[in-house]
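Quick one:
INPUT:
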């Protein structure tokens, strides 16, 4: 009898403490007037639109309690796009919608997405992100102190240049390309016989203008926004690397948010991520993404069809056949040998399993 009463008393006390904790926890939570968000590109890119959408949805879903301000063009990092992971992990920036490439020198497993000619289709991207490999990558990513909330997408990266159409690895010889400051890209281009220079996006367009480089590689949204046809006549759709985006938040900050605020922020990230992905994939996955934009997000006006636009501006577009892509993949085999141990063999193998499902 006595024992039972003690158990009951302890349980009641526990419930009281939990309730008090919740009440005081909530009362103690005072949001900052404004939270910062890192975004490498400007507001006109699909990625920038997605970041703004997240901020807007957070404001809406928290009844105006949480205000996030996107800082476009890496303005909080003086343009140094590959510094974002550190800045968000140490809390000097609160929120982030960023490219996995720009964090891949720190979180090595993210280089999986840049293994040349490895993933190749949206189906495969989705399977990896929601599969075993994706979860392993998220775990690695979170170790440094950033909470992962959702995937978005910059897109499959295509190559453009001002000199000639690229159809075979031999066509790359001697061309000089701007790439992101991420070592695997230097290795890929060198392996293909080209010259590669790392440069921040903030400086890249000036480099195209001045002809400091012959070419670059980026997804369609980026290419349309900067009107790449003004600098480069040739584009090859080679889908060699995918650039997923991550919606994230400093982990200590995340822990301080009450549960209802956490839920609002997470739901908003997932919704903005889905919207942003649909923008990034529009016209590239049949009508799937266009339908999502129209039916789910009620977007009244369809986005611009990017490749038709590029052709109308005088660009020559080359779509590689499967065999042509295989020749590039074969040529970059040493990149696999070098990078799989860095990415993690188990993650690489999990990705292959995920893609089979
Ligand atoms: O710098 C690039 O090429 C960009 C805009 O795609 C990224 O931020 C990875």
């Amino acid at each position: 009898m006595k024992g039972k009463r003690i158990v009951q008393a302890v349980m009641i006390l526990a419930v009281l403490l939990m309730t008090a904790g919740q009440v005081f926890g909530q009362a103690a939570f005072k949001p900052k007037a404004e939270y910062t968000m890192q975004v490498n590109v400007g507001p006109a890119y699909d990625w920038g639109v997605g970041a703004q959408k997240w901020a807007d949805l957070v404001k809406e879903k928290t009844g105006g309690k949480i205000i996030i301000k996107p800082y476009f063009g890496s303005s909080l990092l003086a343009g140094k796009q590959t510094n974002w992971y550190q800045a968000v992990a140490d809390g000097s920036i609160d929120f982030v919608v960023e490219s996995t490439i720009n964090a891949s020198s720190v979180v090595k497993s993210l280089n999986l997405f840049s293994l040349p000619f490895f993933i190749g289709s949206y189906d495969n991207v989705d399977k990896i992100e929601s599969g075993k490999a994706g979860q392993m990558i998220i775990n690695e990513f979170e170790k440094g102190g950033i909470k992962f909330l959702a995937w978005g997408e910059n897109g499959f990266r295509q190559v453009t240049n001002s000199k000639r159409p690229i159809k075979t690895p031999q066509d790359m010889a001697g061309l000089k390309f701007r790439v992101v400051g991420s070592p695997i890209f230097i290795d890929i281009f060198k392996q293909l016989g080209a010259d590669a220079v790392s440069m921040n996006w903030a400086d890249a367009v000036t480099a195209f203008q001045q002809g400091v480089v012959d070419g670059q590689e980026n997804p369609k949204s980026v290419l349309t926004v900067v009107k790449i046809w003004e600098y480069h006549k040739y584009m090859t759709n080679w889908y060699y690397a995918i650039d997923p985006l991550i919606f994230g938040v400093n982990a200590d900050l995340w822990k301080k948010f009450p549960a209802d605020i956490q839920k609002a922020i997470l739901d908003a990230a997932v919704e903005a991520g889905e919207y942003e992905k649909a923008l990034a994939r529009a016209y590239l996955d049949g009508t799937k993404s266009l339908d999502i934009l129209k039916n789910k997000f009620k977007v009244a006006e369809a986005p611009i069809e990017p490749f038709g636009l590029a052709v109308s501006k005088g660009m020559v577009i080359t779509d590689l056949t499967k065999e042509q892509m295989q020749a590039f993949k074969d040529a970059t085999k040493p990149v696999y040998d070098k990078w799989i141990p860095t990415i993690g063999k188990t993650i690489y193998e999990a990705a292959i399993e995920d893609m089979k499902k």
